[in-house]
Amino acid sequence: MNKLEIWLESIDCRGELKVVSADASFRKYYRLNSTAYSGIVMDSSLQKETLTPFIDISHRFHEAGVKTPEIFKYNIDDGFLLMEDLGNTHLFNKLDDNFEPFYSKAIDSIVKMQNTNIDNLPIYDNKFLKFEMDFMEEWYLKQHLGVTLNQTEQNTLFVILNSITTEIMSQPQGVFVHRDYHSRNIMVTPYDEIAVIDYQDARVGTVTYDLVSLLRDVYVEFEPKYVEKMALYFRDKKGLRVDDETFMRWFDFMGLQRHIKILGIFARLSIRDGKHSYLNNIPLTLKYIKEIASKYSETKDLLELF
After folding, report:
1. What is the domain extent for residue 14?
2. Least CB-packed of 27, 33, 61, 113 within 10 Å?
3. Residue 281 carries which DSSP code?
């Protein structure tokens, strides 16, 4: 009997465990059928430090009215948690249906999330934004493609990344940022509610971050007109007094930062962790970068680099 099974037995949750998923981190998820509790077991034993933030943010979300799985039991020392089973339907699974109402609800949830208590959460500052984008050169260019930039190319990239971070920091700041709010991290409950998961890495940052994660999702592509329509729906729902062009510029530059970072993360997941399926999502990620970089004078040189 392993540690997880011993813990479940100690809380009278003897039952069958079935693998649900393993995400991009080292966490694993199981569905438990037990006479005492039925739910989802999260095994964070390889990343124990993520469990306390998950529990903390769950409480903050509850206070802000954001739907999340209810937590039943947890074991901080070993990294185990038992929570409510919200079913098998992600927002991603609704894309073949009439998906627009669900995306409107998902955007409404961003507005709620941004009302969440942010006390003592780490901040998305200039330094961290740049740190994330540096994953691209190290893991995507050097490790994955075997490409080393010359000095001129490095200088060009340095200027572009600085322009991106400067633009992002000019936007409204100081709101809760989920950091991975996309179609596979949003559940649709049997009552058609939107429920948020996988939020343990949250920070305080820019107003457009979670919006661009949702609408320029690296797992699904929407028509540009729909993306702009829903981005502006968020702006109006949030009550931001800014013109369409400025807001979409904010949105675009935030997307560049996120997608540049993701290139590096996908390459790292393949090289370091053996999770090669993420490489399948690189073409769409690159497409986003090239399309947006071509729109602005500050980022056009990025096209030549790629």
Report:
1. 3-83
2. 33
3. G
Distance CA 106, CA 205 (A): 19
Rounded Cα distance between 289 and 304, Å, is: 12
- pTM (2 decimals)? 0.93
End-to-end CA distance of the chain: 51
User: Do residues 106 and 198 make contact, with C-beta atoms less than 8 angstroms apart?
Assistant: no
Contacts for 288-294: CB closer than 8 Å, 24+ residues apart: 288/216, 288/218, 288/255, 288/259, 289/256, 289/259, 289/260, 289/263, 292/252, 292/253, 292/255, 292/256, 292/259, 293/256
Same-domain status, 240 and 267: yes
How open is the CA angle 173-67-236, to the nearest 5 degrees? 45
Q: What is the pLDDT of residues 51-81, one digit of tens each?
A: 999 999 999 999 999 999 999 999 999 999 9
Q: Domain count of the chain?
A: 2
The reply to whether 120 and 242 lie within a common domain is yes
Same domain, 18 and 143: no
100 and 79 inside one domain: no
Measured between alpha carbons, how far is residue 286 from residues 70, 142, 218, 261 in Å? 37, 16, 9, 11
